Amino acid sequence: MNTTEIRIAVVGTGRMGLTHAENLARRVRGARLVAVTTSNAERVVEAHRALGDVTIYPNLDALLAAGGLDAVCISSSTSAHADNVVQCAAAGLHIFCEKPLALTLADCDRAIVAAEHAGVQLMIGHVRRFDAGHIEAKRFIEEGAIGNPLIFRAISGDVDPPPPSFADPAVSGGLILDAMYHDLYLSSWLLADEPVRAYAEGGALVDPAIGAVGDVDNAVVTLRFAGGALGTLYVSRTCRYGHDLRVEVIGDEGAVQIGRLRQTPVRLLDRRGVHHDMPRTTPDRLGEAFVVEVQAFVDCLMHATPPPVTGQDSRATIATGLAATRSLHEGKPIPISNAQHPDKT
Amino acid sequence: MNTTEIRIAVVGTGRMGLTHAENLARRVRGARLVAVTTSNAERVVEAHRALGDVTIYPNLDALLAAGGLDAVCISSSTSAHADNVVQCAAAGLHIFCEKPLALTLADCDRAIVAAEHAGVQLMIGHVRRFDAGHIEAKRFIEEGAIGNPLIFRAISGDVDPPPPSFADPAVSGGLILDAMYHDLYLSSWLLADEPVRAYAEGGALVDPAIGAVGDVDNAVVTLRFAGGALGTLYVSRTCRYGHDLRVEVIGDEGAVQIGRLRQTPVRLLDRRGVHHDMPRTTPDRLGEAFVVEVQAFVDCLMHATPPPVTGQDSRATIATGLAATRSLHEGKPIPISNAQHPDKT
Amino acid sequence: MNTTEIRIAVVGTGRMGLTHAENLARRVRGARLVAVTTSNAERVVEAHRALGDVTIYPNLDALLAAGGLDAVCISSSTSAHADNVVQCAAAGLHIFCEKPLALTLADCDRAIVAAEHAGVQLMIGHVRRFDAGHIEAKRFIEEGAIGNPLIFRAISGDVDPPPPSFADPAVSGGLILDAMYHDLYLSSWLLADEPVRAYAEGGALVDPAIGAVGDVDNAVVTLRFAGGALGTLYVSRTCRYGHDLRVEVIGDEGAVQIGRLRQTPVRLLDRRGVHHDMPRTTPDRLGEAFVVEVQAFVDCLMHATPPPVTGQDSRATIATGLAATRSLHEGKPIPISNAQHPDKT
Amino acid sequence: MNTTEIRIAVVGTGRMGLTHAENLARRVRGARLVAVTTSNAERVVEAHRALGDVTIYPNLDALLAAGGLDAVCISSSTSAHADNVVQCAAAGLHIFCEKPLALTLADCDRAIVAAEHAGVQLMIGHVRRFDAGHIEAKRFIEEGAIGNPLIFRAISGDVDPPPPSFADPAVSGGLILDAMYHDLYLSSWLLADEPVRAYAEGGALVDPAIGAVGDVDNAVVTLRFAGGALGTLYVSRTCRYGHDLRVEVIGDEGAVQIGRLRQTPVRLLDRRGVHHDMPRTTPDRLGEAFVVEVQAFVDCLMHATPPPVTGQDSRATIATGLAATRSLHEGKPIPISNAQHPDKT
Question: Which pTM value belongs to this model?
């Protein structure tokens, strides 16, 4: 792209959309935030408060009709992702889309094909890949510091459950696809291998409202990889003590551990012992990585290089998540078939 | 037992036997180490070096024939445990037996029945229950500090694999029964619940010699408990960076984490960063707990109270381990049936 | 100030000046970076690279002549601070000035009086007061969590010494005034007390070039406070393992510890032990606090509230630093007389 | 000493005396605890409870009259140390004496000369030298891992003050000699240098009863060493959050840090953050080192090798402590003259 500035709009102004919009407005070099979309009157007020005089369109149609864009950042609800990607690709816009790309492999394929046919870039928001800890761990592994990586061990915990309307698997894809998504991707990325079988156990152990919409609030997943490596993952919506994101990769000569159990660099010591805080929210733990991630997208457009996380990466992650989710319901291990869409054959 | 001193002998002088013998000789109040057994000439020398002028018998028969004992500490090879227990019970001796009690449930029942019929105490060596960290975690859980415990998450790593002759499942019971045994027990103890289903994946990912004798060197196990709680466990014989024993129990209001990643209280800081050591051996991490454990056995005998870890506790742990091991070989989740021996009905 | 945007220029484009300029350009709400000054051709290039199309003036005179400003951020060399403050105050501009305000109490008084007479705000750059760790520690102390604070214990270490030309006490004020400045201020702020006596020992223990210009590269300082509390401080220019900023305040019922020994949230574990990195630069440790600090200045101007760190705060810190520096040279404890300038009486 | 067993008695059955007696009775190879002394009826009961059927003499005269000893462990009150050493040396017994050897240099010299003239070994109880952390740090320094050691930084905190009768400087030597003693010694040992000047500030900041007997409860000390290195030390009797023993040695290429802020390997995490315990007593932190220390003494006697900590080591530490104590009272730095007794010239 032969330009010094990428004109970009954010589709959707939920929590993630506003974060991306603020970063694009202030922190990402080479980007100009042109507009955001929301049909919600409260969100309009909130967006103006956070972003100043940015133009706000009621929906994607209006945004595209106005023109003047190089790219979009899609932060709508997951169920709208595929249609949004198809529509933006048809408009010739480069696309950054929040994870997951879709809730079905068919929708993934539809979105991927649309971007390919339109010749636009499609990058998916795998934010933890842009966190300094994960980057350093990947570097250690690639340099051979832990030998051959064998085991991926992870925990992803949110402090409190979302509203049942959000947890509803029809909206979120269910606990595993929604909240274990990053770990499923990171396992493949860090082990440099593909999962071939998934087994899951879980339950609505804490929040009956989540059970009522057909989901679980805690689950554990076992993965077997093509090269023999193993994954053991735990995900929770009820990790009251903090937003606990930890990954370990154990190799045949050592291990890397990513994560931390302290947020603010201060400890209180009294007669009862030593006390400190924990990260409690995603921005606490990953705030800077969101800037690095969107910067990477803008840099790709500036330098016409392929994005670091593609639609196929998200599709493969979703295939794993769907298999694990099926295992959760069927009570047996499920082979993971990550057959790609016909165009790729 | 109406006495001020328990006369005790140690059966077997492998690494664990010598540890128990030294602790009984020097560190356990109320115990008098009377003798040890070994038929191995090198071990005789080693035992004298460690224990001084202790009497050494070539085998259990000779030890029992000599008499003068109140109790025995059985540290022979696992496959001999059940026979040893039966023989010592018949001699009217109280018994401390290293874990696991046996490699089959039938042998467990045989040993348990023998002790019951003889009216002698039978305690099994579940050393981690006597570690200050695990004790404190149990206390936190019982006091309600984490709410209702839901998830048991554990890692048990040995630095290097044992010789294949030891790893042989016919001798060791296989990786899960041998090296995940403590975590299987701790999961029930800390969650105060019983596992009802196990799923395992594993492989001889590092050491082909272990594969050659029919075992794996790394495995992950998922447990489901009767009350809905979940377990996610990882065990390794090739955890090169240290003897890594960590347990987390996550409840609906908090969590406890047991374990540590530093042994000596010193850090080296240089231009490359911060460096410190890890526990590398079981005595590094649990040395004091072995004293506390055998002290608990001796105290039970002194005060005629029931032992804190019974034959049934070991039997239940073995039942779980056998189910997980079967899952490992059959590729599907296995229900855990922990039906007790007829006398208990 | 009845405005929605503060027009601000940065005087000086060294490392600190560029940091402030970038933050003002992108991260501080309510600020508009209008210009920077530098007479150095290389810095002009660097400033354009970092800041885009910002206007660059060769010096403060040219900047003031151009007009159109509400405020300035003075990041020139310390020896120019007082003159810069006087000139900007005369121009009616609000002033943020990097620490220390000056190298003599007389210059401090000149600058403070100029700002007072001009009726402009004068805030000094005490960045660590805006770090989340220090803020939390202050809150703990004020809430009584440690009882009565008694002891201030600190270390401030830079990885490598600056060039001798910079270390020259005529330029930097010497090690204590330059590099222990923040700890001297924090001791008063956190103990809520004033130092009355200082004793220092130090030496050019590592870098003879620093000795050659008349300074030391490592020093320890003892402070006694009016209320009886004690300070024990260490400062180093040769802390090779990292940028080590740690503060402890110990009270009669507990303590707070600020600081950390890990930067990236990743650990490498191998056969030699556990390894992780350290903060190595000021932005590593305090990057976000620089944004919060300048935001606080802009917010003061927007809401016409007094700045959280005043010229008098810097003057008192400098008085302590001068006493400690004198002790270093005279080999005896020096009383701290922090008599204020005549206007304050 | 041509024997396989050292017959040893413990003089004094206070807390330290009982600890040594228990270790000698059970944990030290090659030692046989023969007797203890106490004139206190309660202590007689306590000693029997802890040690079983050990012989108890009312005083040192009675112990020496009974004979049958190779060595003594002197754990009487500090003011009695020198006389006890002289008397035991005259009886031809090897001597382990708790630190400090005495409260005056003259008494030190008297004790040292007595042992030399009698040709008996005299070892002083510098327990931290036998702690794994300090040993490892010394090894790192000797291997050059931190370059040239420059700075010794330490904290020694006891949770609560002793009774004023014990704190009385006539009994204890005062806070610095009593509670900073180990750090004063460690500074010389770890830096491999001798202090030449001391400056101290302190106060009875918390406990007026300590002030009433003429002592302080918190103090900071600065040391300058012959080679230019510096020490900055803090000691407290009111460190409510724990028994905090930390030492850092910073060199021109790195640093070592000794100490830890966690005792039990367990953490509690709840909605308020992360919580863990601290060491609270000397046995919590140094329990094992007391065994290693007395083992070292017994090994010296068995192998006729010189003790690792001599009377001269204690004398030099006391000289430093006396200088720092004088500085505390006189308000100026005090040169440390560690002239040795005439026999050494």
Answer: 0.95
